[in-house]
Write a structure and sequence with these properties.
Two copies of one chain form a homodimer. By secondary structure, chain A is an alpha/beta fold. Chain A folds into two domains: 263 residues, Alpha-Beta Barrel (TIM Barrel); 87 residues, no CATH class. Chain A has 14 helices and 16 strands. In chain A, the strands form four sheets. In chain A, strands 4-5-6-10-11-12-13-14 form an eight-stranded parallel barrel, surrounded by five helices. In chain A, strands 1-2-3 form a three-stranded antiparallel sheet. The longest helix of chain A has 26 residues. Chain A is globular. At the A-B interface, helix 13 and helix 14 of A face helix 13 and helix 14 of B.
């Protein structure tokens, strides 16, 4: 395999691992901040790195539109462009085409769409999505898939999943292996255990450096999401990393780690940071709430982030009330530190064999 | 005097000085970033400090409305509230009342207005403005003044200036001297040399820790602004700091330093940073301009700021094109570093007696 992955310890289904990429090692379980447009919203890479983040995610859909993959390639690749020297995973654009683009037409050879930014017409194919990710210089490339809408009937979910499996084979065929670079397949199949098992088997048959679980966290609820993970059971190879795409809340992450997931990404820390929602070891806080107006305490007394070291809840409340952009900056910073601390705590719990006792707020 | 000020060297009319406050020393000439609402827009205090800024400005008008001076006092004062341990100068609110508030009524005892934020009615008096600044914990308090509109007739400018001089006396009377804290008077009088001289004499008669020049940079143009400074000549005491309020561009600052000004404040570095305008040693750049789209160079090869160390013009262009908030953050950071580097270069030029050769781009 092009990406070395070592499971160093396990605790139940949960694993402590190391993923070796061309741009460095990722200790798993790991959370990837989302750098949609080559930027983690509101945070410099120095802050992202200081939070403990080891790997960031870029979005093929956004970057192919602005500034364009070829332009990023001419500028030295995505790592240099966004000044992030560590590993980068890029998604294939499939999810964003479904959620953002207009006038989509999905066919067996790919998807034709008009960009949400300027209406220009694009044709994204499985091979094309991989080529774009090569141009970006991704350490971890994702296959093009069709994100099955929720809810969908079993017949719809089956047709969509089988198309994604054909695209997965075409994506793998287009991938150029290099040391420290790899490609992940994406399990689809909605909330139907039989389809998920069929999808996993199809991907294993093709053979990937890692296996993602897609099409979840789209409205089905945590119980159904975890049921899909439970249903997958041993269908995903133990020696390869597993990535639950677009998940999630701290509790979602803990429960998925218990079920053997190694990698996560989600916009929640930064999106919540922009909308005044703070994650703390005592639960979430809405910083717009007037009860914080005179509170001299930090967001979270147990947190060592620069926001908690220097600023009170009263000050953050004031910034959000005034619409000062420093509010989203400081709160996104805290939330990302919170998520990274959660992952470090999860790794420590697995190493100590104490994950059963692990609790979030 | 409550604020020690030492002139360590001079070069023509320009001076190299040290202003000692309760929260530290300010080497002059100095530029004060504007923290209107207890935040320098888009920048953490760590970044503000790293830029070389020694003192920041807070706005009495904004802070009395949100979150309120008494609340800031209960939370330990403005230094602790905004996590800035260095010196703070606060303006008196006079300028913002004129530019932002609604239904203003100016009378001899002060100004009645309705807040632009929520329409609440307030009565700001000279003594009240000083008491608010005491509650904030300001190192340097400014007298309440009426910012004379531009253009104004000589009669209008005279009446406005004389009212401001009466307010200056009332402000001084309300000021409670403490070591390391001081109060500055503000010279008004529009573009009329006789009125400016009368105003300066009136303030010197009252006696202040420093003397500000107000009512400029309001549309009169650089030539008239510098003519006012030239006209003041020796009217301001040489042993006290001089502060040109709300100024300005790099060139404005250099020309005012040549005329003996020691302190400056302006929103330009951060406002320009939010609107894609970059200050560089080769002039200003509009980062939205398409010519930057593939430029791998930093904003300014001569700049040592974190933005120039890590990011290309192409990347900054991309961020502004996408509306990513990291664009304003990185560009505000650069612009503030640029301004602080300008001030350090000016101080070095004065110390070396080479200010006559000093050139900006």
């Amino acid at each position: 395999m092009s990406l070395a992955f070592t499971v160093e310890a396990s605790d139940g289904a949960a694993r402590l691992g190391r993923l070796e990429t061309a741009h460095g090692t990722v200790k798993t379980p790991a959370f990837m901040p989302v750098g949609t447009q080559a930027a983690v919203k509101g945070l410099t890479v120095d802050t992202v790195r200081a939070s403990g983040a080891q790997v960031v995610l870029g979005n093929t859909y956004h970057l192919m539109l602005r500034p364009g993959a070829e332009r990023i390639a001419r500028l030295g690749g995505l790592h240099r462009f966004m000044n992030w020297p560590g590993p980068i995973l890029t998604d294939s654009g499939g999810f964003q085409v479904m959620s953002l683009a207009r006038l989509r037409t999905v066919a067996d050879d790919g998807v034709v769409f008009r960009a949400h930014t300027d209406g220009t017409r694009h044709h994204l194919t499985p091979a094309g999505a991989v080529e774009i990710q090569h141009a970006l210089g991704s350490d971890v490339t994702m296959v093009l898939d069709e994100c099955t809408p929720y809810p969908a009937s079993e017949a719809e979910a089956a047709a969509s999943m089988r198309r994604s499996m054909r695209w997965a084979a075409l994506s793998k065929a287009a991938f150029v292996p290099r040391p420290g670079h790899g490609i992940f397949g994406i399990v689809q199949g909605g909330v139907f255990p039989g389809l998920r098992a069929e999808s996993a088997a199809a991907l294993v048959e093709i053979g990937f450096d890692g296996y993602a679980v897609g099409g979840l966290a789209v409205g089905e609820g945590q119980a159904r999401m975890l049921a899909v993970l439970d249903g997958l059971g041993g269908a995903l190879p133990a020696e390869r990393p597993r990535y639950l795409m677009g998940v999630g809340t701290p509790d979602d992450i803990v429960e998925a780690v218990r079920r053997g997931i190694d990698l996560f990404d989600c916009v929640l820390p930064t999106r919540s940071g922009r909308t005044a929602r703070a994650y703390t070891s005592a639960g979430t806080l809405n910083m717009r709430n007037a009860r914080h107006a005179e509170d001299p305490a930090p967001l979270d007394a147990a947190c060592a982030c620069p926001t908690c070291a220097g600023y009170s809840r009263a000050y953050l409340h004031h910034l959000f009330r005034c619409g000062e952009m420093l509010g989203p900056i400081l709160l996104s910073q805290h939330n990302l530190f919170f998520y990274q601390r959660l992952m470090a705590d999860l790794r420590a719990a697995i190493a100590a064999g104490r994950l059963a006792d692990f609790r979030t707020a």
